Amino acid sequence: AVHGLLDVKKGILMMLIGGLMKKTDEGIKLRGDINVCLLGDPATAKSALLKWTSSFLPRAVFASGKTSTAAGLTASVVRDPDLDNEKLIEPGALMLSDNGVCCIDEFEMMDQKDQVAIHEAMEQQTITLSKAGIQATLNARASILAACLPRHTYYQPTQPLHKNVELSAPIMSRFDLMFVIQDVHDVTTDNRVAQHILSLHRNKKVEETTSGTHLSTIDLQRFIRLARSYKPKLDQEAHNRLIKCYKKLREDRSYVRGASGVTVRQLESLMRLSEAVARVHLSDVVKVEYVNMAFDLQVNSLRRVERENIDLNPEVVEEEGGQAPTEPQDGEAADAAAAEVAARQRKVRITYAEYQRIGQMLAAQLSRSEETGDEVTEEDLVAWYMEQVEEQIETEAMLMEQQHLVQLIINRLIDKDRVIIVYRPSEDAMKPEQRVLVKHPNFPVGEVITRQEKS
To answer: Where is each MCM C-terminal AAA(+) ATPase domain found (predicted)?
Structure first.
């Protein structure tokens, strides 16, 4: 019952399916479980996602960081009066969720000493107990799904990730995926969320905004059980691609997660995510395409969310052989001609929210046309958008500016964000606007548009 947040839901699905646990020749165990952290503003459905996960799995435990202690999460030694006060080990939340998921809400409320207690459980997946004469090593093979608020209640996009959260670097590096959920004020998104919430309160069936078959809870549990039975192996091409992805993470400073940057744990995380993606596709081989999907998901969670204005044409475009008017023009015609020339020569900047709004409109229109079987050229898409905003246009100069703006947005959606792809180029080289466009199959309508990395 949570609207949107498709990347977060993908991450939770990867966590539910998980990677493969391995054992080296020296007897060292390499975990296959995936840990996920949700760092978000208040009222962004973090607790709802944790509650759903804890109720979905048969072996899942829900805990609150504010009221949990180290002993409550790991294990404690107690005396049982029914057994002559003999010492017994009482399991905590991590032990009770063995082979399942431990959901910890308000993770930032935990004391530092209590957070340190789960370091071993998150990486080695064991709990070493040395209390009251009892020495034991207990299994805690559980994935951890944690939710926490930013340090100053609301996420500050101008600050790096590690300065926005009350977590230590060792804890942060143990999370395979760390999603930042911001409460962005956007008219389109706010309208969809309001419609969704009100439909829930009225007990009406919520309409699906994305195409595809809706799975029931039982069907999804059966699918996850089937996917976890696969043991995919890494082929050589995927092996080489993993190395390239890890090197890119290390070199690009925009992916920095904490003060220490990207560590080798992110390479292991990428391997686990690739195996989980292969399991989702019911494949026995981890292919390059699965590595790319896992890399995109990890990049979207690592990269700091950008909210600055967007440059649509950072380089000044100089048109060769520009046509000068042969006859003098006056009035609105002269204003339109001057506006068209000025619009194509200056840098165009647009706010992040406006870019998201227009990009979502264009993607939704292409998706609707694809469902009806209609081909859409760039010229048709621009004309459709101009019909939507015709009430806001008062002069011909504004018309030219809006046309140029939407053309620049379409180019960025094709070249950088990979939301739109060119299905068929134009047959007439003099009329490039007649190329046929379609929505990228990997972009769900309604998701936030983020810049994708090309391999």
So the answer is: 1-197
Q: Long-range contacts for 214-220 (Cβ within 8 Å, ≥24 apart)?
A: 217/56, 220/56
pLDDT of residue 316: 43
CA distance 74 to 115: 11
State which H helix or E strand residue 350 sits in: strand 349-350
Say if CB 363 and CB 443 are below 8 A apart: yes
CB environment 425-438: b (16+ within 10 A), e (fewer): ebeeeeeeeebebb
Q: 349: helix, coil or strand?
A: strand
Domains of the chain, earliest start first: 310-319+331-439 (1.20.58)
DSSP character string of 17-56: H----EE-TTS-EE-----EEEEE-TTSSHHHHHHHHHHH
Residue 316 near residue 263 (C-beta atoms within 8 A): no
Answer for the pair 45, 297: CB distance below 8 angstroms, yes or no: no
Question: Token pair for residue 40?
Answer: 């978000």
Q: Which residue has the tokens 């060769």?
A: 320
Confidence band of 256 (pLDDT split at 50, 70, 90): low
Q: What is the mean pLDDT of residues 315-319?
A: 43
CA distances from 112 to 73, 95, 303 (A): 14, 20, 26
Backbone angles phi, psi at 45, to 5 degrees: 70, 25
**pLDDT > 70? residue 360:** yes
pLDDT digits (tens, 9 = 90+) for 365-419: 999 999 999 999 999 999 999 999 888 888 888 888 888 899 999 999 998 888 9
